[in-house]
Amino acid sequence: MASHQHLTPPQGPFQFAGTPTSIIGDMRCLIGNCRKAQDELAKSVRPEEATFANVLLPLVHSENALKVESHILQFYQHVSPDKEIRDASGEAEKLLKDFEIETAMREDLYHLVDAVAKKNEQLDTESTLLLGKQHREYIRNGLKLPIGPKRDRFKEIQQRLSQLSIQFRKNLNEAKLEMWFLPQELDGVPLDVISGLEKGTGDKEGKLLMTSDFPHYIPTIKYAKSAATRKRFQLAYENKSVDNIPILKEIVMLRDEGARLLGYPNHATFRLEEKMAKKPETVNVFLSDLQSRIIAGGRRDLEVLKQLKKYDLESRGEVFDGHYFIWDNQFYGHLMLEKDYSVDQQKIAEYFPLDSTIKAMLEMFEHLFGLVFVEIAGDERSKLAQSGDGNDLVWHEDVQLFCVWDNENEGSGFVGYIYLDLYSRDNKYSNPSNWNLQPGFVREDGYRHYPSTALLCGFSKPTPKKPTLLQHGEVVTLFHELGHGIHDLVSKTMYARFHGTMTVIDFGEAPSQMLENWCWTPATLKSLSCHYSALSSEYLKAWEEESQGTSPPPASIPDEVIESLIRAKNVNGALFQLRVLHPSILDMMIHQPESHEALEKINISEQFNKIRKDLTGLDGPEVLGEGWGWGHGDGNMGHLVGDYDAGLYGYLYSKVFADDMFQSVFAKDPMDGKEGRRYRYAVLEKGGAQDEMKTVADFLGREPKPDAFYKDLGVS
């Protein structure tokens, strides 16, 4: 048969040729088509005639058609360099959210779905799940409230929440603080970061410009020797989205009011009803139990780091005042790894150039899951573009596009598209993340619509002398987010709403968290690595100039470096997990207040800072007499206004399933292709189309257990 490079995909890639006018116009058209289908259904079917086939299927087909383009029309606001396009995309999202609220509160459609639910038809698993969720969604959107002021108020709340969430994310995407530093203030920051900084003129002569974006924030907070510089950066980062503080407070208040209108005691109870945990008590017990198991270890970690800071300051002739600040933690954490474990993250990063690491990761996924990734570039893009212009297939020149197929053993079928947008730029969503652009589903004609998915990161761009290099933690994160992309690609569900990562929140991270374990496996690290000096003669020459004549490094990462890295895996692990607990506990606090009045009195920013201090023991400016209102890190918590409200615990909760699956199935041979394919079809392919606990239990052959989770944390 023809090689995959010469196969024509049965479905072309999306054309990213949107303009401000077309984005809003296309969304209005999509909404109009969906509303028309709903109106026709409401007119043509009476409740006594209602069946799954004549009510739910028409509804879900119109929903599927809407999602084919609506995800992308909303996506532009997070990636486009054009402000008018970003604004139009935000407006399109508002139009869609208003329509979704309208749809969710249609009495006529609810009566039809209610009639179907009461008939108890024999349906397949996914259709049964669809019917149950659709029926409950109408109730959870206020249709059990009496017509009148209460229902009207509930609708107002939903519309306002939609507007506020869009504004919160817009503020977050566009937030950036600029800071000028003297070169000596940046002592310790990697030279490849310093060399790319803008040099000041006029009254800024002799200074260098840095911003609060990740490519500057992370290396500075980690490597700058000056505590004053790190503090300035930390405060800038914590306060870059201060405009979001009143927005978040209003969001939390409205959520609470809406939940109470529906008869729930709080928003957390409302949200968790549909999750694996089911109720707040389960989450509270889980978080409290985890905290009790690791708090003592966290304090021990903190004390060791304090002693390291004391030694470091005194060796420089400075006085240690007994405080260990938030802005100290990354710096002394990396110093400990270098000093006590011979882990030099900058040297390790030389073995993980971004391009070659991505290529190696895709090759691993090919082996494990029976896939083939074919990059579409140059003339091949133009051939697939309807306009003949290959630039229309991506939203920015930095974006890579891959066509994904099953390999020959898996049938050589088409799987979908994956986009990689890896470099930082202004006004782009910069947190490493995966975005579904088009879900997969079965079309009305019985053929499959194939998925498209995108990976967004905020890495620094390569220079002529050095490629973009990944520290090990960034390798883990990249593998995690690519894992979401694979989940998005290989899922095969009938309905778009259950596709890929559209699972319950407290399971959704498990597939990617499980894959993180590969980044702690010696053979995997070896195969992912390639020293950047081996990539080209230019890079080798640049490395030789920088290293001043030392012998060329081995092409792949040395075994002793891997051993040191793995030995240090859980160094300061308890303190790290307490930091992970911090946002989860804040999330549950603000979404289960004793009363609406009590919530009104909560200062979320102050609680953000207090909880962090109580959990981790890390000092902030409050110990310097600046009070608890010094920082507003809660303004950066985009997940709180997405789908993770009363759900941030899911990152820890789902790790129970992730660690159990890895230790039980893959630990003995992470590259076992047979088990990889079994995992693909038993877990990833299912998406959210069946109960997630059944998915895990079927794969494991038993109910999941937390033993591996606690073992990985090093606690009993």
- The shape, in one word, is globular
SS field, number of helical segments: 29
| CA distance, first residue to last residue | 54 Å
For the largest beta-sheet, the strand count, sense and barrel status come to: 5 strands, mixed
Low-confidence stretches: none
C-alpha Rg (nearest Å): 26 Å
Helix fraction bin = 55-70%
Number of strands: 10
Strand order of the largest sheet: 4-5-6-10-7
* Structure class: alpha+beta
Q: How would you summarize what this structure contains?
A:
This protein is α+β, with helices and mostly antiparallel strands and 716 residues long. The chain is built from 29 helices and ten strands. A hairpin with an 8-residue loop joins strand 2 and strand 3 (208-211).
Task: Characterise the protein shown here.
- The protein has 716 residues and is α+β, with helices and mostly antiparallel strands.
- The protein contains 29 helices and ten strands.
- The chain has helices at 20-44, 52-79, 83-104, 107-119, 125-143, 149-174, 191-194, 214-223, 227-238, 244-261, 267-272, 280-315, 326-341, 345-349, 354-369, 379-384, 472-490, 505-508, 510-516, 522-528, 537-547, 559-567, 573-591, 596-601, 604-616, 650-666, 673-684, 692-700, 707-713, and strands spanning 178-181, 198-199, 208-211, 371-376, 400-406, 414-423, 433-438, 441-442, 448-449, 452-459.
- Strands 4-5-6-10-7 form a five-stranded mixed sheet. Strands 1-3-2 form a three-stranded antiparallel sheet, covered by helices on one side. A two-stranded antiparallel sheet has the order 8-9.
- Helix 1 packs parallel to helix 3 and helix 19 (510-516) crosses helix 26.
- The longest helix has 36 residues, at 280-315.
- The chain is globular and about 85 Å long.
